[in-house]
Amino acid sequence: MEKKNKILRKLLNILRYNWYYKFDVNKILDILAFTIKTIDKYSDIYYMNPIEKKKSVPSNNIETLKLLDNKIAIIKISSFGDEQCSDWEKILEKFNNEYCCLVLDLCNCQGGSLESALSLCNTILQKNTIQLAFKRKNQLIDVGDNNNRKIVYCLVSENTLSSAELVAGLIKESPYGSVIGENRTYGKNTIQKKFYICNIVLKITIGKFIFKQVGDIENIGILPDVIMERYLDNTFERLNLERPINIGENKTNIYVLQKILNAISDKKIKITGKCDESTIKLTEEILGRKIGNKIMPRDLEIIYYKYMLYCSRIENDKQIIYVMKEVSENEKKVLYEY
């Protein structure tokens, strides 16, 4: 690797000091990145400031950590950080072993450290194996411990990907696990690694993980054991985000907008299909600024995003309610085992 680094450095230096034409490292890297991405969309090459290189991956990306009254422990993870690898037992110790089942919320989790995801599986799941396929070798990894007998529910969405899918897949294969979601997960099971050459970062795919029972999920995703109905309705999909809305206008698009404003706000307005002062005022309250007598496309996009978050929370709450019902119905059986 050192020889290859020296060759690349020499090549860049030759171009920089001898090429007659103006030379821009970033442009060369852009060309290389475009070529790499045509082969693999998850690989990249780019220039990075030396200060950025020193920044470590966050050690704690846990958004929610709570214990419900009916002994259900909930952990919501947005991503897996490198420094989390040895922290999962400490995190679970905060529940003082008072929970009968664990709810792992991986909805919209973008993945992260493979080692951290495997460490979590070792802490909460029964013994299993997973295959790591690399260019020159395949490796079977033992995951979990037969002493782990707590029931685990995994909440997923279509934006659950990468190492989060690794956790979801192993939970699906576990006799004490169940995956709940409204759709298949994203379908990214490839593993990336970063190589640093001076201030140039080369990020490439070095392998993929393949499940023992679920198999290869690339571009397919993981099908939940329990499929929930989506909250997002067809009315919302008809909202036109390209054209502005003027006060006094009377259109179907305004009717849809008023329904959305009522959904994401505590205040309610009359749904008339006409853009009146109450519609403008409620839009300003949601945006947190004045907009005058016109709702611009960028304002509609922000409302669109807020409504998507609202729907995501509704779907997430439905998943939690389902788990609570399942636990209450099987509580005697679950508590008997422990």
Automatic annotation (TrEMBL):
<feature type="domain" description="Tail specific protease">
    <location>
        <begin position="24"/>
        <end position="229"/>
    </location>
</feature>
<protein>
    <submittedName>
        <fullName>Peptidase family S41</fullName>
    </submittedName>
</protein>
<dbReference type="InterPro" id="IPR029045">
    <property type="entry name" value="ClpP/crotonase-like_dom_sf"/>
</dbReference>
<dbReference type="GO" id="GO:0030288">
    <property type="term" value="C:outer membrane-bounded periplasmic space"/>
</dbReference>
<dbReference type="GO" id="GO:0007165">
    <property type="term" value="P:signal transduction"/>
</dbReference>
<dbReference type="GO" id="GO:0006508">
    <property type="term" value="P:proteolysis"/>
</dbReference>
<dbReference type="Pfam" id="PF03572">
    <property type="entry name" value="Peptidase_S41"/>
</dbReference>
<dbReference type="InterPro" id="IPR005151">
    <property type="entry name" value="Tail-specific_protease"/>
</dbReference>
<dbReference type="GO" id="GO:0004175">
    <property type="term" value="F:endopeptidase activity"/>
</dbReference>
<dbReference type="GO" id="GO:0008236">
    <property type="term" value="F:serine-type peptidase activity"/>
</dbReference>
